[in-house]
Amino acid sequence: MREFRYFIVIIAYLLYLFYLIYNIVIDKPNLKVEQIFLHEIDIPDIAICGTPELRILRCDLITNNGEKTPIDGCNSYITPNAIDHDNYDNYRDNCLVFKANKTIKFAKPNSGISGLQKIGFYFYDDTTAAEINTLGIAALTIQLTPPDFDFNSLTNTNKAISQMDKATLSEFKLQLNFIAGMVNYAAVVRFKTSTYRSILPGDTRAIFGLEPNYHVTPKIENSVSYIPFNSNPYNIPVGTTGYFSIAAGSFTQEQTSEERTNTIFGAITAFGDAFGTLAGIIVIFFGNFFFVRKSLNSIQDSKEFIERSRFYPKLDFKFSKINDKDKGVLIDEFSKIRCAIFLYLLKNDLNEINEEPINESEYKLEDRFATKVYHWLMNKAYIDIMFNKYRVQNESLNFSSMDKEDQELLNKEFRKIRHVISTYVLENISEDQMDQKMFAEYKYKRELKFSNKVDKGDEKLLNDEFRKIRKLIDKHLLDEPNIEKIFEAFNSQREDFSNDMGKEDKELLIDEFRQIKHVICSHLLDIPKDEEIKYNNSVEKVKLLKIHINDRKLLVFEFYKIKHVINSILFKELKDRGIYKKYKMNRELKFSNKMNEKDKKRLKDEFRTIRYLIDNFLLNESKIQTNINFLENMDSRDKELLVKEDHNNTRNDTDSYVLDKV
Predict the structure, then answer these.
(1) Is 617 exposed, middle or buried (0-12, 13-18, 19+ CB in 10 A)?
(2) Are 187 and 247 in contact (CB under 8 A)?
(3) pLDDT in tens, 567-605
(4) Strand pairing category for 95-98 and 45-49
(5) Which of 61, 209, 464, 616 could tie 263 with a disulfide, CB 3.0–4.6 Å?
(6) What is the largest CA-CA distance in the chain?
(7) What is the rounded CA–CA span in Å between residue 121 and residue 241?
(8) Whose CA is closest to 348, among 392, 312, 378, 310?
(9) pTM here?
């Protein structure tokens, strides 16, 4: 009977595994829509279509400060016999194409970036020929396309890469009916851009749950306004029959991205959760097996293991403003740092596999084989090469596409990370010799804020990569895996309060939250005294809030409970068990209907963040100092485990007994 129950559990677990795999195979992506805030936009290619007599007499490049550069015939940008015209002539006869090839851009007003406001076109067209088959006055049609647009996917649908490329074909044809210029009229054409990022079939990165190699389909939407010529148009080329201008209608780009719902990493996580349930069932029915804990840890670490293996894609960045040379320098530096950490982990892994320190002369045959396989799997040859490069210290890295302040910001971050790694990996710096200020800054200065000259997307890519590296260091070198979580909570940005709340109340509440988060994280992140924010441990100021009396009472008591817990833990004030109990039990904030919904959400979010810090990192910290004399020949790791186990058990037993009696 016992074996039968065990068999049923295993079968259920395997069925769940097949279910996860099936979901990966049939996965249909969800759509994520984001707003990208641009400071400049490439001038699109502009196909201008009319009769065979169509001529562009002049184009004016007009900057944001009003400077005008007239170009007769627009010959710098329009070549009548360009091969690219064939792309448009498949749909319209007699097209001229304006192509800037990304050499000029529209710039956002007041952005501090030099660029164009609009481009004006003066044209001549044979009005008689243009009106033969129409009821209205003679008109031009245009098509705006991104400068790197792929026409192959449109002119031959068999070559279309994604479904969105095929859908764009119909939009492309429809937009060639867009009237941009009419005889004796000035037309103002404004456009806005959007992108659709498709996951192509067989994209292994997306299947695993990593950032996909997106196929991007750009799109442009147009709108137009018409103004009739006056009786005596000023300063226009002789023979002009009409005029139109092109300008950016928005510097906010809508980006739609496909995201897989079911991935291998997601399946591993779900599989691990299910394994935890299975492990509990096995323990209940069959006893506490050591392999349960070992297997569970292996599943939870599987994603990190894959990221370290030779099968994980090489590091790459898709920067917008950082040039290829600087990109190569950054990839090389990040790769060297990662390999220094990976080499440290590799040695630890092999020590664990062999259950003793590595000594190749004592390997058995099977140990040598296992080690070689593991070396190949983890790409040790490459790690060794990069680690040797890492050991060669560089005073600073030079980036030609960044100014001095941004370069120094990057170099300072690399120096902090290298200092921490060298202490634990190179072992040429003892912990006593560590630069404590640099080490503290590593823990609490974790967000790189570049100047406005660095693209926001590029800034995010760099911060994300530094964040991944710090997580490895925190977990494996410092044995403090929660530093990043603490910093994220400490650095969390909330939207402002509504206009319903008075300015003094806003400032008071913002200051209270900043004080509380800062005093907690000063303790957890070792923020130096000279950078601490003054902490007021009373709630007298909160009583001065001018909000509804019921909401004021609620906030006063909430701040009082939180500050009492903080004060008793960090400042050794007398602990009141009743307040602790209310702190733990009364967690739902019920504000009155007098408070704006936006303000309610802001307050609840801030209190949720503070409680997360307190619950997970203050209340769980062991303050008991125990001195235990072990035998000299006991392994240091065993001593550490015994002390930790003794601390936890003693503290839990004491708290449950004493607090119940108080």
Answers:
(1) middle
(2) no
(3) 999 888 888 888 998 888 877 888 999 899 999 999 999
(4) antiparallel
(5) 209
(6) 106
(7) 11
(8) 378
(9) 0.53
